[in-house]
Structure prediction request, 493 residues.
Amino acid sequence: MDADEFRKAAHAAIEEIIAFNQNIAEYPVLPAVKPGFLAPQLPKSAPEKSEPWSKIQPDIASKIVPGLTHWQSPKFMAFFPAGVTYPSMLGELYSAAFTAPAFNWLCSPACTELETVVMDWLAQAFDLPKEFLSSSPSGGGGTIQGSASEAVVTCMVAARERYLHAKCDAEGLAPDSQERDDRIAYLRGRLVALSSDQAHSSTQKGALIAGTRYRSIPAKLENQLSLQAAELEAALSQCEADGLEPYYITLTLGTTSTCAVDDFAGLAPVLKRHPNLWVHIDAAYAGAALICPELSSKYSSLMIIADSFNMNMHKWLLVNFDASCLFVQNRNHLTRALSISAAYYANKHTDSGLVTDYRDWQIPLGRRFRALKIWFVMRSYGLEGMQKHIRNSVRIGEVFADLVRGRCDLFELVTEPSFGLTCFRIKPSILGSGGAAETDADFIPQTAADQQVEQEANAVTKHIGDLINERGEVFLTCSSSACKSFIRVVSGN
Ligand code: PLP
Prediction:
């Protein structure tokens, strides 16, 4: 494809994308295809001869679009949103044009420096403690990763190394000694990562990858499924009794199932007594809400308890997948754990210590130019436009929650609606005469009859969720927490 062909093809593609976007509500939100639908429509092997764009483009509408789940559809109320906007698409286009696996500053200085600038813009827009800024005396800063899961495992590795080396230093073991290596190998088997049982599965997976143990701490329904100090203290004592050493914990601002928020203020004194425990705050979805001062004033200053904080622009903040923003109070913990030098990376700018080489802040070597799309979105919308988007979603969520409350003869809210997410279920009392009648959603069934009614409510709720999805008018997710099944409706689209 030469420049003239590209011009024609790109114009045609852009027109098709605009038409697709404008008509998105007309498409079925879930595709009707069966597993294995695509391969029979395509040749068994790649074409020997070049094909013109005029032959390739029609396959988008005929073969690909029918197999898409439309995450941008207003009928999509499942999981969490995955938004995209025109400025963000333009960022992707330029990023593709300037492709560079910019692992070192030298590999594309603008790529590195724009990332530092937009991460500082975001930290300020979220009103995060100044320790997370690249100019902070603590050595803070932000970096863009592919996903929240990647951010978790990256921080876990940094936490593990920080914990092990601090312990070996305290024991007076010489750096790079055999004795130290042996001690580290022994201690690793005792390390345990923690989170509440409501935290995203990425913490458990991260521990698996980091080669340490993992324990979850039950969060109580009577506390809105938020992790509290008493439960954390009990878990830490149990670890000690079992000879385990907690080195990392994920706290969550907006859990996946119900958007619960852990009790950061109440947990702070407990965490202070464990200075070697790395605290990561996972705000993958709800972190976007911190763009609004009325919400950041409730949460942002509390983020000071965290060594690291992560939010996904690619969920609720107008930037397309992938753009996961990780902020740390001390970048040296990342670079000490993840920096491997090799002769082919050496250059005078790295040696000068004056530049950032983001390869040392992450697991992969190469990295995409993701800062462009964040930069375009922040400039095109302005903070005001971004705030308007969040407030609008929260308002729609409140309208929906009020509709559920208005049918309290049929439904009950499982937890208070939070950040545009409403979780509700069939009221057990309408299903039978068990003891669950006339109870609150945080009722814990004691008798066999209560339990049976609860189980029926779970089964009926799940059945209703499945029926709604089968009808295809909207797509939503069922989940369960604290033995209660419920339907989640998210308004972020
Ligand atoms: N953390 C939370 C709270 C989430 O809800 C999710 C996904 O929905 C994740 C982490 C994982 O996000 P990612 O796909 O960016 O790894």
